Amino acid sequence: MKTKYKYKDFVREVNRTVESNLGCSTLDLPDSITLIDYWHSDCEKFDQDFWCAVDAAYEDLSNNCGITPWATY
């Protein structure tokens, strides 16, 4: 399925995932990852690439902070 996402949508969704699972925002956590490293051109066009990038960023951010990702699911 094709959709048009922007980098700001990606940052917003990573932050929403962090907030819903950890109860804080990405700004409250140490800068252990660079979000732009997870963004690539296919994220703009394809849902699966976009959401996989969101999940990967959340997972790495959680792991780098010593938090088990998806622990609240």
Put the structure in a nutshell:
This protein has 73 residues and is mostly helical.
Structure description:
By secondary structure, this protein is mainly alpha-helical. The chain has one domain. Helices cover 53% and strands 0% of the residues. It contains 3 helices and no strands. The protein has helices at residues 7-22, 41-45, 47-64. α1 crosses α3 (47-64). The N and C termini lie far apart (26 Å).
Q: Report mean pLDDT, rounded to a whole number.
A: 87
The total of helices stands at 3
Low-confidence stretches: none
What is the tally of beta strands?
0
Q: Which H/E pattern describes the elements?
A: HHH
Class by helix and strand content? mainly alpha
Helix fraction, binned, reads 40-55%
Rg estimate, integer Å: 12 Å
The termini sit apart by 26 Å
> What is the percentage of strand-forming residues?
under 5%
How many domains? The number is 1
